[in-house]
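Note to self: keep these together.
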Amino acid sequence: MVKRLLHARSATRKAGNAASTPPLSWDAVVRAGGEAREGLLRELAAGMRLREKTRQMAGRMKPWEMLLSLARYNYHPFRSGANRRLGIPPIRFTDGPRGVALGRCTCFPVSMARGATWDTALEERVGEAMGAEARSLGADFLAAVCINLLRHPGWGRAQETYGEDPYLLGEMGAASVRGLQKHVMACVKHFACNSIEESRFYVDVRIDERALRELYLPHFKRCVDEGVAAVMSAYNRVNGEYCAHNSHLLRAILKGEWGFRGLVMSDFVLGTRDTVKAALGGLDIEMPHAFHFGRRLRRAVREGRVPEHVVDEAVVRILRQKARFANVGTGEDYGTHRVACPEHVALAREAARKSIVLLKNENGALPLRRGEVGKLAVIGRLADLANLGDHGSSRVRPPYAVTVLQGLRDRAGDSVRVEHCDGKDIAAARRAAREADACVLVVGLTFRNEGEAMPGPLKVGGDREDLALRPVDVELLEAVSRESKRCVVVLEGGSALLTSGWRDAVEAILVAWYPGMEGGNAVAEVIFGDANPSGKLPVTFPENNGQLPHFDRKAASIDYGYYHGYRLLDREGTCPAFAFGFGLSYTTYEYRGLRLNAEEIPPEGTLQVEVEIANTGGMAGEEVAQLYVGYPSSRVERPVKELKGFARVSLAPGESRSVSFTLKGNDLAYYDAEKGRWEVEETTYHVFAGPSSRPEDLRLEGSFRIAAH
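Structure:
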């Protein structure tokens, strides 16, 4: 039927009667599938007036809405591309990475915290919950998947991404895409090399093609392969060209080599700088208003500076995703009853619980046993603060938030007296610590110290060139630790913090990140032993700032090299304070019997790697097994090792299970910039398995060869 419709309309145009042809029905486009839909989409775009086409390509935010957004960002979904004449619905956009930035939605732990879970199944469920809440509040497009590589942990928006490793970013991002797209169009951001906040609008990232391909792009490709609907371009420049104008990134790689069939959207306001460059470079939608993709674009088309087929291509990409998701979620019971519902709140608590990383635990300081602790001192201003993360575009306003103090009081019950001291008076803090059986000291960062840099007379957010705690926190920590018999430090923040100079003075350290609306309950569960900590660091915690790559938050131009994070420390042979992938537990695990199913595979082949993990302690827990691959005989410079697999496994005391990883030869390729292609070396590869990236933790080792048969 669709083919007959296309044939009839084509014949009508050939007869010179195109002007009298009735508009193509949007419903017919949505009902069609495969090649038939593609044909109808192209016909629909070709038959639209130029003004209608450009209206598809830009947001329709009004001036009063822009003013409102300064005070209350994303109060309503941002719309773009409605066409009443043709019945085409708008895109209804919202943010953000830790929950929906509309209404009173569930506030999940920040992405960095969820990266610390290393749990793709959990992240898919979080994405599904976010998508349902967005849809329930009138949005159908959610920019929740931030997968920028964390080159330096001082990046202000580090909390919005999953960590420092491209493999971890790709797997977590793909899981989020799967969950979100059960309800809405998902958008991954910010493409590409975006990891400085305060100079984001102008910084030029200089990077060679190999580092770009191997480190800063693989996770985006993973999400493209997962079928993500949209990609948001970054504000910054890459090798001299703004990302929204960058044809190498958008046309050659994203749409060309990767075969991306979705749409490319600009970051807001300053994401687009030049009409012609953006259109020719591969941008499809300018947000949130038609500064460039309105009258200026129509003029450029009429003057021949932008071919109309470029506009048609963008329109087809936009309409393709609208049609693809037109019936997604049909039959679902959407409504405000799904927003911050009990199921989603419980999920936020689970994510917070699994994200907590135990960095230190001397002499069994944790967990606290209710019979052993009669009085607990909770010290620090952050203990009684709903510390949810930055106040930029990712901000979520939940109906409530549980603080660490409230969580501990609720969990302690009648047997433990919990007293709070905000720490402003050092003498009072010392006295509280001295008189208690144990103390929990909560220190770290807030939205004022890091996050999206927000305009205004007072500096809020931004980057950190120094990862140390605030001096007042260090002073409080040193004072309290001298008095306490049992001092537990809870760190809050979006990324790595320095612990040198004070960590030896305390018995236990937990990283809670920005733990979301149920974070206080999750922290209390771990501290009292009702839950076993199982988080692993998704970012290296360095010993000092000198172990990190050069970082200049005001840089106009900066070089991004091939090494950062654990790769850099491996190369230089230095030890961080706490390694990528590290995290302790209240139980112990033993790794046994690494097995490879082959000694040699072809370049396009696959290898199965199995390892047995046993819980040798007395408490049930979950362990994250990690697989790394090294390249000892490579003819080119490569990292000492790279993460190439991970698996989260739940084990009862005394239980053991086998975990299987799949390695593909193509995934071990390096990019040959001179030849402009990926190369799989025929050589020997080393395989390492263990609980973290620390050399002493990679207890099992094996090797195999890749060779053509």
